[in-house]
User: Which sequence fits this backbone?
DNA sequence: TTAATACATGAACAATTATTCATATATTAA
DNA sequence: TTAATATATGAATAATTGTTCATGTATTAA
């Protein structure tokens, strides 16, 4: 394993930074099961629609979630199962402390 | 998989937040190989001694690194191999984008 | 005992960021 | 067309955070 480049260190930090907010953690958690629309997420995790929407935009920009529009609804889901792996690694860790 | 509790969501976010800074990423990266003292880390990653020391404190507080003192030196190393796993999951992810 | 080295840490400052509030846009129902 | 619903987003604000600079503490060398 060699030294990480400056750029890669930043990219890696950026990635983890996305997981580093409890609202986004909650969103990712409810999306582990199935795709959900914004209002469902908002109600499930008890965070305002606006706050959820702002965070979904961040998750979308970092390509951690994808979405599809269906009528008035926008359904969000995890982009790939790497996201779940990283997430579960974290869960495992805090469960062992 | 059930719903994460509020507290667990916060703990999980706190954990990822630690990985969410490029200086800490660089520190963790150089510690993957072997234990190192503060000055070595500072020179290897090209970050001031003070900044490294501040970040090591954060890593220490979150129990991601451990340390041992030997004379004037303080040698730091990763607390357990969970840290490496989480880190490498992230590396894998960004390598695949 | 004095100087040098290694590390830690408080204060200050700049930058980033998450939420709320208000409002805009888009789709469907009436 | 009008009202209602679902979502998005800009501005503002408060809070968090990472670095630098200065300096403190501890250990070893001279």
Assistant:
């Amino acid at each position: 394993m060699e030294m990480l480049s400056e750029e890669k260190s930043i990219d890696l930090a950026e990635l983890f930074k996305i997981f580093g907010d409890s609202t986004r953690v909650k969103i990712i958690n409810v999306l582990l099961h199935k795709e959900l629309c914004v209002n469902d997420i908002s109600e499930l995790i008890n965070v305002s629609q606006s706050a959820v929407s702002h965070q979904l935009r961040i998750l979308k920009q970092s390509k951690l979630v994808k979405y599809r529009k269906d009528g008035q609804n926008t359904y969000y889901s995890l982009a790939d199962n790497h996201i779940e792996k990283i997430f579960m690694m974290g869960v495992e860790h805090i469960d062992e402390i």
In short: The helical segments of chain B are 6-19, 22-31, 38-45, 49-61, 81-95. Chain B has five helices and three strands. The CA atoms of residues 38 and 74 of chain B lie 7 Å apart. Residues 6-95 of chain B form a domain with the Arc Repressor Mutant, subunit A fold (CATH 1.10.10.10).
